[in-house]
Structures are given as structure tokens and as C-alpha cells.
Design goal:
The complex is a heterodimer of chains A (378) and B (383). With 378 residues, chain A is an alpha+beta fold. Chain A is 51% helix and 15% strand. In chain A, the strands form 3 sheets. Chain A has a 4-stranded mixed β-sheet, with helices on one face. In chain A, strands 2-3-7-6 form a 4-stranded antiparallel β-sheet, with helices on one face. The chains are: A alpha+beta (378), B alpha+beta (383).
Amino acid sequence: MTYCLTEAQQILGQRARDFASEFLDPILADLDHGRIFPKALIGRLAAHDFLGLMVPEQSGVAGAGFVSHIEVVQALSRSCPAIASVINNHALVAYAIAHWGSLSQKAAYLPAMIKGEKLGAVAVQEEGPIPGDGPEALLAVRQGSGFILNGTKTFVRNAGVADVYLVFATIRSGLTGFVVDAGTAGLSVGPRLETMGLRACPVADLSFKNVAVSETAVLGGEDPSVAGQLLAIGAVAEAAQTVGIARAAVSHAVEYAKHRVQFRHPIARLQAIQTLLAETVTDSHMAWLGIRHAAQLIEDGAPFEAEAAMVKLFLGRFGSKMLIDAIQIEGGMGICEVVPKHISGPLPLARMFRDIAGTTLLDAPDDFPDKVVAAAVS
Amino acid sequence: MNPGQAAVRQSAKEFVAGNIIPYAEYYDKTGDFHAYLLEAARPTGIFAMAVPTEYGGLGYCPLTQALVLEEWGYGCAAMGTTLSASILSMEAVLIAGNEDQKRRFCKPMLDAGIGAFALTEPAAGSDASAGVATAVKSGNDYILNGPKCWITNGGVASVYVVFAATDPARGAKGLSAFIVERGLPGFMPGDREEKLGLRSSNTTFFFLKDVRVPAANLLGQEGDGMKIAMETLDIARPAIGALAVGLAQRCLDECVKHLRRRYPAKSFPGETLQFELADMQIEIEGARQAQHHTMALREAKLPFTKESAVAKTLGTAVAMNVTSRAMRLMGSHAYTSEFGKFMRDAKVMQIYEGTNQIQRLVIARSVLAPPRAAAPAPTVGAK
């Protein structure tokens, strides 16, 4: 397997870097402090072809595919990882519809999603540790030719701003995906939650009160493996965010170390600082190789679950650590949320620290990557 | 722990439960200084816990102080920092001050006043000798000029220990320490910094512009400054370890509370998760013991410089590790709640009062020191 990008993939990566410096860098501090979802950016992202990369056939973009998707996500995350979160959640819905959806679902949603006219959101988690188990579990009961949904989904990203939700509900014992439009009677979005980071991406609970959906809303028959596969793909895409943040942090810390003079020299000359930098760069490099490998497998339609789980396991250990160490290099400057009057900025590491923690969360026992990796070797 | 210490710890626990834990989230959100706390603590005299009894304080021994600080760290590391930084400044005076200076500096602490220790400057962070602040003798006074930054309690202290060069040409050997009372003409306080963690702990920049300080406020002799600073930090560092141990224990307790609520007993996840929790407790326990060991050495008047640096580094590293692991384990629940405060607070603790890299320099110096005579190194080539 080669890790060289094709020319078309490189062009997409460059386009993402240009997009970030033109449209994201100027506003990202405001988005973070104000917890602002930048609705106006969605159309722009679509115009740059970033919303359909995970559905190459339907988007028709040259070079589109999972590898390009993570390239773009990584590049945008160097600037504003919250926007990458919005895109990742949206793209997972598009991917699911493209892979498991019916012809009519594809026609109804994909063109609009690629153009950014409809934004997607995935709803998997519940208050109980295992979906379908707790008192608030989202249950689907067959009624006539359709289903009635009751229960609550928790911590849904893009909640409230999405036009279409891919919701996993329990029928008897299995999880089944339903494509539910925002505004469907009985579907309501809870208050927006205050996240530690990734603040431009809204998070809220979704509650369902006798929500009636037709048979055509079901995604991929009643295949219970869809949710797991989708989450595994999502984990790789999310890992690209982690690495994007870490790379930006290292670049910033390197510049800082080259200019900060202590003990009569720039601190970049100190071995202790060089070691911190070297370890952080190594961690992010190793992670990126793993991500690229898993992404290629996904793009090729090959089995990828173990490789995706290894990425998740690795970044569980080293994700936040990369920011912990980058901040250590900048010392007091590294912990500034607002640039103090007596110095010149920018000082983004505090924000990155809060952001990166949101990219390696485990939300359910099934999220533990250890057992997936162990199963692959035994 | 003797019965007296157990009683002190118990009352600290009660104080923290009633006066710190309920308000920590609010102050973390706003970043405002938790001024109410000084009022609430006034009747307990806890801000004078390190003030010797002959000056009217509680005169707690180092271990007892550590027990209190762990409880405060358990409640809120930002609030604990206000207390520990105040003690830090006072220790400088206890180390180097004369009777009159000690009495004067300790007095505000008896009434829940606080102190600040002002060593760091924009150009002098880890390299404490690179500062530009100066103190020039003028009659019976010194005139102080220069910037100070990242000063804990900088905007809220009633009394400061300020370091400035009386002989800039001599570098570290030209540094001197002064008691500076709040409100002197030319003392120009800056805004509080907006920090990632320990947000309600007041951190400020300030500038000294021709501040006239009586010569009677010089601690020790001219040129003693760096020695005073290093000895003071030796004493104060384990306090950060104590706060960090408290923070880590709190984080683990909250994590377990959440997991128990979320997972019914029958479906509590297996060894992967259980061992994660066990690892966290192992680390916390180790850090706590390292820190108590340092306090015992100090009490026994044995050398404790290395152990002090170990206690600070280990405590804060454990706090960082435990809080980030707990964040991951608790997932979105932690990410959308005040739980993030633990992780943000821990990060700052790896940096202040000497970064953990500076601690490693101190520890390495001791590790690499020639072996003591009692245990001579084997002769090279000897059989």
C-alpha cells in the first residue's frame, strides 16, 4: 500500500488548507468564545466540494473518496476542528445513505446533502450504556406500514442545526437506522449543551414522542451491523481531527520555542524542549500512518475494523497527550484563553487542548477499541 | 496521622463540602476571583494555618497543611491555589525575614488576608535570573521598577514578596527580595489573565513604577533574593502536589460515581475499565505517599529538595493523567459538563511554581550527585 496522495487528492488537501486560512482562521476564536455555529459556511464548504467526499459516486468530485475526506478533515482541523466535526457528522449520514440506503433515500437526500442544502446528524448514544437498555432508550414499534419512535438520544452533534437525522432505534433486540427529517412531529431538540471544546458544533439531546415514520425511513433493512460499521468509520474520520489539531499545536509550539529566549538562547535549543517536540511529532506521525492505512482500506471496501480500532486505541493514549506536551513548551502562554495585553498573540493552544479532548471520547462499552483489536489477533 | 491531624482533616472536609464544592463551577465559568471564600474562611483562620503560633497563627506542621491542601484541591484546585500561593509568599518571609518583618507579613493572614509571591517576569520564566526589575537604594528606601507577570493573587493580595535586582550586573547573585504592601504609589496592577484552568485563581501582570519601599522591607541582605526564592519554592512545591492529589482523587471519585449511575451492577464493564480505574488509584496513592514523605522529611529537618520536586512533578503528572483518562472514559457526559474543569486545572498545575521540566533539572541534579561517603562507589576495575 502506498501513502502517496494522487494529484487530485493533493489538490483537495490544498483547497482545504486555503479554505481554512481564508474562511476559518479569521473567525475561529469568535466561534469558540461565542459558541457560534457558522451556518453561512455550510454553503461555502459545499462549493469547495468538502461535503460529498465520502460519497464519491454521487458527488462526482475528482479524487473524492475516504482518503480525500480525511485529508480535508485533517487540514480543516488544523484551523477549526469544530467545523471538521460538523462535516464529519454530516458526511457519516451521507455515507450511510449511499451505502445502505434505498434508491429513493439516495435521490431524496444525497444531492441536497452534497450541495449543503441539507445538513446531516447521526444519533446513536443513549443515557443507558447499551442502546435499547435504559429507561429512556429509543424504541421503535411497528404500527401499520410504519413505526412509532419513543425515547431519547443523547449528545447528538449537529443537533438543532441538522435537516436530517440518522437515528438508531431498537426494534426487538437489534439497532436499526431510521432517516428522520428535522421538524417531524414529535421530534424535539433539547437545550444545547455546553461543550468543553469544539464549540462551533452544537450538541444536544433529541427526544422522540410518538414520532411516526413510514417504512421507507428504515435504512438498510434491519441490519444490526450498520451502526457498528458506521461508528468505526466515524472513529477514523474523527482521528483525522485529532491529528490535525496536534499538528497545528506542534507548529505553533515550534515557532514559540524558536522565539522564546530563556537561559540566553531560544528554548528550541534545549534538549528537553526538543524531546517534547520530537515525541509529539512522532505520536502524530504514527497516528497519521494508521489513519491513512485504515482510510485506504475503507476506500477500497476491504475489512478495516481492527485497523480503525488500533487508531482509536493509539489516540486514546496519545491524543490529549500531544496537546498536554505542546502547552508545556509554551508554559504560561500555552494556557492563555485570551492574549494578555502585555504580549502579542495568537495563543491558540488552550482552545486546542479543549478541542482535542473531544475527539477521543469513549461513550459506550462497545466503544472500547481494545476488544476489537484483541479479537483481530486471537 | 495523629488524632489532631484527623480532626483537622475532617473539619477541612466539612469546610470544603459546604463552602467550596457548591461554588467551584460558578467561579470556573466566570473566571472571577472567589472573594467570598476569604470571608467564609475567616472564622477558621485557615489562611493562617502555616503562620507560627507565636505570631498568632494555627502553626500547622507541614503534613497537617498538606492534609488541608489535599481537601481544598479535592474541592477546587483554583481555590486551593489561592491558599497555597499565599502560604508560599509567607514562607519567604519566615525563611529570611527578621522578627518585625515576620510579624508584619503574617498579620494580614490572621484576618483571612492573602499574600503573593512575585518572581516571574516576561523575560524571566523558567530562567528566574533573567529579570529586568530593579531596586535602587535611595536614602532609607529602595525604589522599585519593572514588570511582574503570572503572579498568583497578584490583584487581590494585601502584601507581596517582590524580587528585584539590586545589582543587575551580578545576575542571580544580584537579586533581592522585598516586602511590598498593597496600594503603594506606583504599583500598577494589570487585568486578570483569562486562563484555561484554575480560572478563578487570580493571576495578573503588574508593573512597578518608582515604587518607594522602606529599606526595612528588604528580606535578608542585598543579593540574597535567589537563595530565598529557591528555599521558599522547595517548601512550597509539595503544596502543589497536595492540591493535585486532591484534584485527581476527586476526579476519580466523580468518574466512578458517573459509571455506577450509568452502568447497572450486572452490566458494569469488565477488566479493561476496572483496571483503568485501578491504575488511576495506584497513581494517586503513589503521589500522595511521595508527598507525605516529603513533609515528613521537612518536619524531621532532613534534606528534602529532591523529594519536594518529585512530589510536585508526580502529583501534577498524576492529576493530568487521571483527569484525561477519566475524561475519555466518561465520554460526552464529561465533555458537556463541568467535569472538563479537572483536566483544565491539572494542565496549569504542570506549569506553575516551576514547570515540571525545571523540577526534573532539580531531581536530575540530585540523581547525578556524587554518591555519599557512606556508600562509596565501587572502584573501577576492582574485582
